[in-house]
Amino acid sequence: MIARLRASYAASPSASVGASIIIALVILTAAAPLYSPYKPETMDFMAPLSGPSRAHLLGTDNFGRDILTRVLYGYQISLAVALGSVGFGMAAGVTLGLLAGYFGGALDNIIMRPMDVLMAFPAIVLVVALTGFVGREIAVMMLAVAVVYVPIFARVMRGAALECVNELYVEGARARGASHLRLMLRHILPNAIPPVLIQASILMGIAILLESALSFIGLGTQPPDPSLGLMLSEGRSFMQQAPWMVLVPGLAISLAVLGFNLLGNGLQALLNPARMAR
Amino acid sequence: MSLLSLRGLSTEFYSGGRWLEAVSDVSFDLRPGEILGLVGESGCGKSTIAYSVMQLLAHNARISRGQVLLGETDLLRLEEADLQALRGSRVSMIFQNPMTALDPLFTIGHQLVETLQAHLDINMHEARRRALSLLRQVGIPAAEERLRAYPHQFSGGMSQRIALAIAIACQPQVLIADEPTTALDVTIQAQILQLIRRLLVDERGSGVLLITHDLGVVAQVCDRVAVMYAGSIVECGEVAALFAAPQHPYTQALLNSLPSHRKARGRLETIAGRVPSLGDRPAGCPFAPRCPHTKERCENGRPPLIKVETGQEVACVLYD
Amino acid sequence: MSSTTETPLLRAEGLSKFFTLEQGVLAGLRGTRRALRAVDSVSLQVHAGQTLAIVGESGSGKSTLGRLLLRLLLPSAGRVFFQDSDIFAMKRAQLRAFRRQAQIILQDPSASLNPRMRIGEIVREPLDIYREGSKSERRKRVQALLERVGLTSAHARAYPRELSGGQRQRVGIAAALALSPRLIIADEPTSSLDVSVQAQTLNLLAELQQDFQLTYVFITHDLGVVRHFADRVAVMYLGKIVEEAPAEALFAAPQHPYTQALFSAIPPPDPTQRVSWTPPQGEPPSPLAPPPGCHFHPRCPLAMPQCSRVTPPLVSREAGHSVACLLYE
What we know:
The structure holds three protein chains of three kinds. Chain A is mainly alpha-helical. Chain A is 75% helix and 0% strand.
């Protein structure tokens, strides 16, 4: 196990660093209620807008709420939105892309032309429109981002599937009487999935950005729930007196995005078929 | 007098945290006007020798010992700039995939002229004239028009002819051909091999190191042959003598395992076991674990090449 | 040799496959789509227990023909009969039954095994598809198959990349054998293997043919392999069969000028035969624009004026030896 980890690190330090950042964030965030002395909405009226101190490691905001605690809880929302949107987007996109790539022809056109149309909308406009119309719950945000992601996943999956369809092992399985379903699920999907996973990692980072952006402009998470984007927006008015109010959530967003991007780039090296062949 | 001499060349690859020897203590001479075949199964190190001579080894490979003498010069002691001047002028190489040597973005006329001008002090007009003559020599029909064509417009056989034209543009003394016909159809293979013999050997008196896995090719076009197994030359000599009376047990087994289209059916002879991987080659004779004549002595280091009665050199304790 | 009166196991009649190549939008509008005649009116028969070799160079259409014979491609024209039933007219259930009995061994064993499946899973897959026996019976069958092809049950847990080329080809053979087929089409089964490994593989295929009364169609460019293995040989050039004969007769006296050229181009591994090595000149023409008449005439040393006008039919001459050449009219 340790040897395998070491080998993975040697093959792609970037993936290992990225994965470490993400795992650390997930653990710190999930365990926050266990060790954090404050709740995200606990207000310390004695110390609003105070800088980093022993009591408040990363300072407090204008209501005296602990910023570190709010960042940790904010991550919960960011990660949930990222995970949910990538999960939905990937499930739908992979299914559509696999069908389009495998069957080709008319079905390919029926599936992919609407995807092209969807893809032509700028992501942020689409998400803003959807959340604006439907509502501002987290689930809606997730679904809105997922809708943006479906065509991206479908395209990547279709391309990878197209390459696999002509592989000799697919032809061999077909000669042995394998059904379409078996060919798609046993032979094409496992061999075509690496580029999808790379894409997923990078889109997780972008989902975090999108969630922050939505919350920042008031269409995402609503106060008093902690969200990184919302914290940025609230901190804007206090930039002079309490720069940590924007600095900390800003850096927090960057850190998570960096983690997912490093992981995505690293996966590219790790899942490269030339390496797999060895 | 030989054109190219290898003296105790060893090349290693870095893998799994250690250096593994892919080519062990290989020596041979390439004389003017001969085709020397370097034959062996995949992984025996024959291509590594070619890349060692050209010093085009991958990042995870290094030459650990030995000399590569081109005339009097030891190529391993040259600076990269001097090597570059030699490559393509005094020593050229062609590959299994001719596209390796051709740039898809430029016309073949451009590439020929560029090669000529890089190594020879000639003007554009003269370079063009020579490029055209080279294309005619390698048998490209309508050569004048084809100078303006791009590599993808040629078939595999035609591309290999063009790669050969570029390789011989500066009259090299030594041509290294690494499986030049493996990717081609047999009828085309025959044409290319005969072209190599005519242009390099018969007309220019150069030496050709022909790397191949095909014993038929060796029998038809080579003058001498070196048989490799697991990084070492196990037998070396005149083609006629070696095919008539192979001496090393590996050479014997290899020739016996060929299905011949002149021989009726029956069970083919096989060699027990499999080629040892780079990591676990035996310390003694590399063929000992699969050899029907193995003795205890076979484990005492790699046997040296010894001249035997039939004229060839054999690395086997049977002939001590 | 079985008599030719009994029904052949596999029979192709006037089989053709044309691929249309899109030449971009403009050419498509102008209607100048070009057709590649990969296989052009091919008829052949294979009798049970025999080996037919289909020989040809790249672009001869031999691999396409192999795929048509297994209905991995649909033909542009013609029919294929397996034990008297037309495989292109088969419904789902019949097709399933056909696929059980007709298997394929593919060329490059490094590309023909799914890199994400273990060896045991690959060999078991046909049994899973046809729901053969219980789980433990399948496991035992996989073990027996692996041992039969010279591997051990320990290999079952390995991935293809952990095996050598020769071992991978044995896995391909084991998977093809799993359902006890009657017909195996082998597409260049040994061309990517080293000679000593090739010899082991060919010996194995010969033993299996004996043990299981297999019928083979061998698609290859290697005449050594053909001579060693085949009962009958069909020589293809640019989509057409130019000569078909019992192996003995063909190797003793090839009749078509192309067959003669092909034979003389193979370098014999015997330096004493050098004088006889006279390769043919010229390149095979593009299958997109084959020459009119006999496709070989531009390269043929014996070409006559009418060869560029008349397409010679494949005519049976003596004892099952057929040639498509005007010299023999």
